[in-house]
Amino acid sequence: MSFQYAPAPESTSIVNIKSSNGLFINGEFTPGHGTPFKTINPATEEVLAEIAQANQEDVDAAVRAARRAYDKSWSKMPGRDRGKYLFRIARLIQERAREFAVLETMDNGKPIRESRDVDVPIAAAHFFYHAGWADKLEFAGFGSNPQSLGVAAQIIPWNFPLLMLAWKIAPALATGNTVVLKPAETTPLTALLFAEICQQADLPPGVVNILTGDGETGRMLVEHPDVNKIAFTGSTAVGQAIQRQIAGSSKRLTLELGGKAANIVFDDAPIDQAVEGIVNGIYFNQGHVCCAGSRLLLQESIAEQTIESLKRRLQTLRLGDPLDKNTDIGAINSREQLNRIIDLTQSGEDEGAQRWSPDCVLPAKGFWFAPTVFTNVTQAHRIAREEIFGPVLSVLTFRTPDEAIEKANNTPYGLSAGIWTEKGSRILGMANKVRAGVVWANTFNRFDPASPFGGYKESGFGREGGIQGLGAYLTSEESS
Ligand code: NAP
Ligand code: MG
């Protein structure tokens, strides 16, 4: 077992959480017209704040504000001026990085090490990257005079609240669109802090509107007749419902949905490095990652040895207070998600897979799940087919590269994959045959604003990030 660490909690004194929060419409915070709800800290179950619920009236007001801002200022503003606002937002996120990180960790349950070192810096990087594009769109390959689409409705999940917001808002603004964004019910706080940043940056009112609320608010936003573009990240079930809802309309749509990624390790891979990649692939952010490497495919000859190393490594992970700077595994985001993980892991045992977790004491309060490995998994098992969205790894084996490809592609999803091998030619060969939007070689869960991200099949369509991501917010027609 690992040796003891003294507690190293990050102070929460930097955040100032209002007990009651409004909606952000037309540059101002205003009360919502629905029944407010509460957001909690999933590590302690403490109530953090009361949050406004946007109803139809509020959705109408937000879309109206976004339309007005689009017509009056934003779509007419030269790209170089839009870019200045994006640069300003990026710098303000950096300036208030610690505040964002602490707030994200409190509202979501993820370790402060991750919110501080991953979520917040990459969110700032997205604004920097897209700020650079704002005045160069005519050189991005969408014709000489690419046009913005109008009002974008953006709906995001709870696993990377600020980062998903940045992935959505930065490209929309850079390309001259205005937005109405709905954060997830369990994690609205960093989106509201971002609204303050919009005020601080003097962003023209209505360019960004933030509507807190539940799935019903999301549905109303999708159905609003004056919305031109919908960008959704979330579950496949809701993504499909949105597709049905807008069928026959001229609304543009991108969907970033679930995944069941294969992380494929060949016998010539450096095992210690691969084990780090496997751990990062599935235990990062408690496995609440759409592109998580949840199916480990090990070449048979190295399977036993790799599983042993992996188990040894997992015994050193520290689970507990997400605000502690030494914590590796934080809280599960909600009781609902915890129940889903418990249900799916139980099915793994019932169907005959072998379950293993390191010794670890789970805190008495809050929602927790120990990192878990399943061996003896077959492709028919639910834990090999369904997205668990938790710290649970299913291990399968293969003998030949062809068998690895067949197993990797045997899923309705196609978001990401990992390949571990010394051979460059094998990396390229495998990457061509694995049906996944993102393929990592000898690494996993790496994100860069310049690199497009998105899926195939039931993982959705459209790309976020890079030049491809800009295309989702532009039309190459000479006039729109
Ligand atoms: P979800 O239930 O689909 O929720 C996503 C968002 O949609 C939330 O803001 C949710 O509001 C809202 N929503 C719910 N019902 C809606 C409806 N009928 N119309 C419009 N909006 C609606 O997904 P989740 O459980 O929060 O997130 C987990 C899923 O997201 C996983 O499957 C994961 O793979 C996927 N995900 C994908 C990516 C990617 O980039 N591909 C990234 C992250 C997550 P409420 O919060 O109020 O329910
Ligand atoms: Mg919360």
Instruction: Please write the CATH class name of the largest domain.
Output: Alpha Beta
- Which spans of ≥5 residues are poorly predicted at pLDDT below 50? none
Number of domains: 2
Secondary-structure-derived class:
alpha/beta
Strand content: 15-25%
- CATH-wise, what's the superfamily of the largest domain? Aldehyde Dehydrogenase, Chain A, domain 1
Largest sheet: 7 strands, mixed
| Secondary structure tally: strands | 20
Q: How are the strands of the biggest sheet laid out side by side?
A: 14-15-16-13-12-17-18
Morphology call:
globular
CATH fold-level name of the largest domain: Aldehyde Dehydrogenase, Chain A, domain 1
Radius of gyration: 22 Å
* Fraction of residues in helix: 25-40%
Ligand types: NADP nicotinamide-adenine-dinucleotide phosphate, magnesium ion
Structure annotation, total helices: 15
Instruction: Determine the mean pLDDT.
Output: 97
End-to-end CA span: 63 Å
Q: Could you give a quick summary of the protein structure above?
A:
The chain is about 40% helix and about 15% strand. It has helices spanning about 55-75, 80-95, 95-110, 110-135, 160-175, 190-200, 215-225, 235-245, 270-285, 300-315, 335-350, 380-385, 400-410, 425-435, 465-470; strands spanning about 20, 25, 30, 35-40, 45-50, 145-150, 150-155, 180, 210, 230-235, 250-255, 260-265, 295-300, 355, 370-375, 390-400, 415-420, 440, 460, 475.
Strands, helices and their partners?
Elements: E1 20-21, E2 23-25, E3 28-30, E4 37-40, E5 47-51, H1 56-74, H2 79-95, H3 97-108, H4 112-133, E6 147-148, E7 151-155, H5 161-174, E8 178-182, H6 189-200, E9 208-210, H7 215-223, E10 229-233, H8 236-246, E11 252-256, E12 262-265, H9 271-283, E13 295-299, H10 300-314, H11 335-350, E14 354-356, E15 372-375, H12 382-385, E16 392-398, H13 401-408, E17 416-420, H14 424-433, E18 438-441, E19 460-461, H15 466-471, E20 474-475
Parallel strand pairs: 1-5, 7-8, 7-10, 8-9, 10-11, 12-13, 12-17, 13-16, 15-16, 17-18
Antiparallel strand pairs: 2-3, 4-5, 6-20, 11-19, 14-15
Bound molecules: NADP nicotinamide-adenine-dinucleotide phosphate and magnesium ion.
NADP nicotinamide-adenine-dinucleotide phosphate binds at residues 155-159, 182, 184-185, 214-215, 218-219, 222, 233-235, 238, 241-242, 256-259, 290, 387, 389, 415.
